[in-house]
Amino acid sequence: MHQIMIDTTKHTVKKRVTIPLQIIDLHEDGFHPLVKIKVFGKQFTVVLDTGASKTAFDKTMLLRAYEHAVVTISDRLSTGLGTSNMESSTAIVTDMYVGKLLIDEFEVAVLDLSTINIAYGQLGHPEVLGVLGGDILMKYKAVIDYGKGKLVLRKDSSVIKRG
Questions:
Q1: Which of 63, 72, 73, 123 is the most buried (most CB within 10 A)?
Q2: For the chain, domain boundaries
């Protein structure tokens, strides 16, 4: 679903995009919401992760998806994702779509997320490119509706008011 609303009091255009979620059962470990994205002209699945401060892609999957990706080693260590600390890298993504919403150029963390895909494979779930994190969810004012299995993202754009 794709809606455009004009708020004349604030002079902004609000573009709202609704994206279906696939909720997978991790058996004894709860549930994960998955969402389809398009990046590098190809479709992938990512985990919607409200606990991840930054969107992250698996290094192997990223390089398989786009062999010319420029991955820069970061001097920061990443924490979480079932590990204490891990070396991280970053990459710039310029063409990611979540539903019909184009996410402008942004930086992703590039990590070894192979343990997630191994665990998913053992449970019969699809391989994932990575996690859609709080950076994107906050910027696009995400609303997650588990009951309806939907993610809503909103992008506000300024409009020039004409006399």
A1: 63
A2: 30-139
pLDDT in tens, 45-91: 999 999 999 999 999 999 998 888 888 887 665 555 444 456 779 99
- Do residues 34 and 48 touch, judged by C-beta distance below 8 A? yes
pLDDT over threshold 50, residue 163: no
Architecture of domain 30-139: Beta Barrel (2.40)
In whole angstroms, how large is the CA radius of gyration of the chain? Answer: 17
Cα separation, 12 vs 10, in Å, equals 6
Q: Tokens representing 5?
A: 């609303």
Task: Specify whether the CB–CB gap between 40 and 95 falls below 8 A.
Answer: yes
